[in-house]
Design brief:
single chain; about 170 residues; alpha+beta; 9 helices; 5 strands; about 15% strand
């Protein structure tokens, strides 16, 4: 499996795994399974992600925060990706809809857990679409949409790395 994996903050004991897909045929089924609590993952619109590190920051913030704003760690990740403090707006903006054919699927595993490893592999195997290398994430990004969501001005965009601007907004959101 060609997924991207990174160990999160040591205090969490978790590893984040993500896989990028295009031409997905079963988004409706995947969303239903997530909403019913049958799949332990989140699915993000890849066009709003400029770099995997953006998701890593949101996941770390989710797992190290003392309080949770949403019902699950997976919806909390979507909430933390958004600069908005409006939960439903955050979930709608960063979560996929039934018509989405490009998906970024994100799982969390306990470090060293073989059953979690199998769970991530099983989730990734359920997606009926073409796997893309995570390095292609930037190619799927909609820079205009990212700048609009995070309110990045022309001056900031031309003088500061886009990822730095996005990550700083995620980090300071209360």
């Amino acid at each position: 499996m060609a997924y991207y994996a990174v160990e999160l903050d040591p205090s969490t004991g978790k590893t984040l795994k993500m896989q990028l897909y295009e031409n997905v045929k079963n988004t409706i089924d995947l969303r239903k399974q997530i909403m019913n609590g049958e799949l332990q993952c989140t699915i993000i619109k890849p066009e709003l992600i400029c770099d995997p590190f953006q998701v890593v920051i949101a996941a770390n913030k989710t797992l190290t925060s003392k309080k949770r704003t949403t019902k699950s760690i997976f919806t909390e990740m979507l909430y933390n990706l958004s600069p908005s403090s409006n939960i439903s707006q955050s979930l709608l903006k960063f979560g996929v809809d039934d018509k989405s054919t490009s998906l970024l699927v994100v799982t969390l595993e306990n470090n060293g857990s073989k059953s979690d490893l199998e769970m991530s592999d099983n989730i990734f195997a359920l997606v009926k679409g073409n796997i893309l290398d995570i390095s292609e994430l930037g190619c799927t990004s909609d820079i205009h949409a990212i700048r609009k969501i995070y309110k990045i001005s022309d001056a900031e965009y031309h003088n500061v790395d886009l990822l730095d601007s996005v990550v700083s907004r995620i980090a300071v959101k209360e």
